[in-house]
Protein: ErfK/YbiS/YcfS/YnhG
Amino acid sequence: MINFAGFKLADRSRRYLASLAVLTIGVVAFAGPAQAAPLPLFPFLPLPMLQQPMPPAPQAQIAPQDDDAVVRSELPARLKRQVVNYTTREAQGTIVIDTANTYLYLVLGNGRAMRYGIGVGRDGFTWSGVQPITRKAEWPNWTPPAEMIARQPYLPRFMAGGPGNPLGARAMYLGGSIYRIHGTNAPATIGTRVSSGCIRLTNADVADLYSRVNVGTKVVVLPIDRRADSADRSRG
Structure:
């Protein structure tokens, strides 16, 4: 005799198991792609745009400070950058080098000038005359001129620009001469006569001057025996 009740129970079990298997396969099929490629947060944007890396943030150029606070505190008061009364017949924007007093004046007009402390040429290396600024450079390379190498053959033939470079943070080249107005990595030499004829300022001061003048600026270098504050009187 056939047990129909047992047959029906077995049939129901098989159908239940079959349904459970189909459901499991569907869940796996749905979960597999989701794990491999999650849905984008902003599906309305093109996929290449989402995958494109962000460009690096531009690096701001750091203005040379030359440890400005320390250097300025160590400089004698007379050599610190300052606006002073200054009478001259030179036009506004002219640079006047007072070699005797180790000052550089940038004429502002109306009887005023910005005065900077400088280092100048040592004995036998001072010079005078009028030259225009013909080139400006930030963190310039240094190629010692042949005259300097002849005197000091141990000098490098080339030195890349940077904090250790003798020209410092900025340089302004004077005419077709070998002379420059430049910064220095030895700020203690400001106010002294140690160079081979170039005019040196602290890195902070040369950066300030550099920002105020252009190519073509007139530079008047007074002789060692002539003070800037008597220049006009000697012309009269």
Remarks:
- The mean pLDDT is 78.
- Residues 171 and 182 are 4 Å apart (CA to CA).
- Residues 77-225 form a domain with the L,D-transpeptidase catalytic domain-like fold (CATH 2.40.440.10).
